[in-house]
Amino acid sequence: MSAPARVRVVVADDSAFMRRLLTDALGKHGFEVVATVNDGDQALKACLELRPDVLSLDLTMPGLDGIGVLRGLRPLELPVSVVVVSAFSPAHGAYAVDALAEGAVDLVAKPAAGEGLEEFIADLGEKVRLAAASRRRRPAPGHPAAAAQPGPARPAAAARPAPGRPRKAPVVMIACSTGGPQALTQLLPKLPSPLGVGTVIVQHMPPGFTGSLATRLDNASSLQVREAQDGDRIDSRTALIAPGGRHLHLLADRTAKLGDEPPVGALRPRADLTIVDAVRVFGGDVLLVVLTGMGKDGLDGAREVRRRGGRILAEAESSCTVYGMPRAIVEAGLADGVYDLNLLPEAIAREASGSAAGAGRAAA
Fold this sequence. Notes:
Layout: E1 8-12, H1 16-28, E2 32-37, H2 40-50, E3 54-57, H3 66-73, E4 81-86, H4 93-101, E5 106-109, H5 118-133, H6 144-147, E6 171-176, H7 180-187, E7 198-203, H8 210-220, E8 224-227, E9 238-241, E10 247-250, E11 256-259, H9 271-282, E12 286-290, H10 299-307, E13 311-315, H11 325-331, E14 337-339, H12 344-352
Parallel strand pairs: 1-2, 1-3, 3-4, 4-5, 6-7, 6-12, 7-9, 8-9, 12-13, 13-14
Antiparallel strand pairs: 10-11
């Protein structure tokens, strides 16, 4: 039996020092750096000629920048995943969010002067490994073939009809992680306003970037989208996003409360905490939507939603960047429907209307 092929990486960065550092770091993880380039045009050329598994991409380069590279990759339809490796700060949050929305799998912050390299090297290795495992299986958003994608790759493992009793409009809870900004960029603009009694989103992101994500989504959506603050009230025309680096709690008076408790499972915010709060406040009138992401955040919350009679939708593997969080829901038998991302808006709108009729059918 032959050994598995090494993950092949192209490194694009205008700094010779960073190219050497990245090459050494990737080599320590067993990856093969097949080319290093110092501008965006060379990055596109290397991807076209060498067909790497992963592109390590700096955002700020002379000539074609990182966003230009991401947009240039789209018509090439190459199965290459992109990990952005760039200097970040809250002031540059919008640029980083643009990169994620344009299709980058994840972000790695370059180490600042005086910072140790161990955490950077470990983070880089994990995210490149994840990116290689999530190489695109379908056309990029906006490509004509994307609209023709089928619904779920298979029927929902536990598709359930909606309860026969009349249902109140639910609070819509959305949980996502790796690949989530791109998924939200496609999903939120297609959702109606008002939606249920309100929408709450937990997206795993570092501090400083969720505000930029909220602004981007707000500009494209009928719903008002903003980063949650203490005292924000759940409202049918608003979607609140948990701030990066803080837990989001929901209080009995249907207002938001931010918490600085320690991370749970290395995550802050943790979707499970917010979902459980939603069940305490809204009982069975909760619609949980679990999108692309690594790990199992949302699973414990989903069990509470199911126990109280709420509804749960999961993104299908066919459209996930990382089929981790939705897989946990489906394999636990908790999903009422499993949908490709382009079919989720209609399913969410139908479920959020509060109508019991036909709400439980998974897409065929």
